[in-house]
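hey can u check if this looks right to u? its 282 residues, i copy pasted from the old doc so theres a chance i mangled smth
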Amino acid sequence: MTPQDSAPAPMTVRTADLASAGWSSRRISAAVAAGALVKLRGGAYCAPGVDAGCVAAGRVHGRLTCLSELRRLGVFVRERPGVHVHVPASGSRLPPIPPGHRVHRRRLHRTPHPRAMSVEVFDALVQSVRCQDPRSAVATLDSALNRGLLRPDEVDELFAALPRRFRRLRALLDPRAESGPETFVRLMLRGLGCRPEAQVEIPGVGRVDFVVGGILIIECDSRAHHSSWESQLADRRRDLAAASLGYFVIRLVAEDILWNAEAVQQALRGALARVRTVRMAG
């Protein structure tokens, strides 16, 4: 799998770089005043339009990391307020850290470019496992694998960089998950003693998120991909096609999966009970 398009790490520009390119102090000040250059701190600047989290990290002599950097790259993370910033463990005399910033000082496993405003994705992923609950951490790693931002041959290295207590998560990863909610549903089903088939192609219906027991289709819908009437109409026609083949379908909403897990688990229990009843009757 090749990496999907992701935003490269923005770079800082030093006063010396600008001076060597012929910029005078007056020109630098004018560019900052006009918004053509963003001042991070004394002697450090960046281009306008750089991610706000990177700017916030740069202003406290750090780099964007963990959940904030992964969100910037389009990797799934549970929504968390604040900015995750990495500063060197030996860093001292830092400016005051604004409220809401989460400061990380652990040693990096990959050395970023000296001017990079964010850490390497590998280090952001390592830190993200520490910062999230286990299910969220698995969903983040699934997302990174699916997007090609974490290679399969790096997974063992990643878990070796973590305390042993996290290694039980290794067996739960599945790069086929195309969204965080899919990972959560898969883990819920495992917790209920079920091993669903994922990303199943059904003739006349198309690809569905999960099939259980050969008769139950489970779809995980999000606002981003199912908000328009056209999308909803297509979903209902797919459901009709599935019903004509003997399947029954439940559609779970991403918001419920992430924030109303008890209700979703109860619905899954009921659906699995129905699957068992139908199979016994058959």
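The CA atoms of residues 18 and 24 lie 8 Å apart.
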